[in-house]
Amino acid sequence: MAISRLTRLVVQSKHITKHESVIPRRTATTTPTGAILPEPEKTPFGLLGLVCAVVPGLLIGAAISKNIANFLEENELFVPSDDDDDDD
């Protein structure tokens, strides 16, 4: 079934390219007349932006992990064994 769909897609794509000429155009970087647009302004966030993005993500991830670990231990789905800590 997948082969028949792939074959049909290939045949349709050959049919389209025979009758229509496709001109590759990137409209996001050029104007309709073909001129190259200026480089967009960059907003520097610096170290403060990095800290404001990373710290909340780490705190939220740690809270979710803690809650899931407590849930698993309360329902006895995963209980850490004390034998793993004996490395004398």
TrEMBL record:
Checking InterPro entries in the record gives: MCU_reg
Q: Which Pfam families match?
A: DDDD (PF10161)
**Localization in the cell:** Mitochondrion inner membrane
- Membrane topology for this entry? Single-pass membrane protein
User: Which GO BP annotation is one of this protein's?
Assistant: calcium import into the mitochondrion
Q: Does the keyword Transmembrane helix apply?
A: yes
GO CC entries: uniplex complex
Record key words, sorted: Calcium, Calcium transport, Ion transport, Membrane, Mitochondrion, Mitochondrion inner membrane, Transit peptide, Transmembrane, Transmembrane helix, Transport
Asked if the Swiss-Prot or TrEMBL record annotates the protein with the keyword Transcription regulation, the reply is no
- Say which family it is in: Belongs to the SMDT1/EMRE family.
Q: What does this protein do?
A: Essential regulatory subunit of the mitochondrial calcium uniporter complex (uniplex), a complex that mediates calcium uptake into mitochondria.
PANTHER family (UniProt xref)? ESSENTIAL MCU REGULATOR, MITOCHONDRIAL
Q: What is this protein called?
A: Essential MCU regulator, mitochondrial
Name of the gene: jg6919
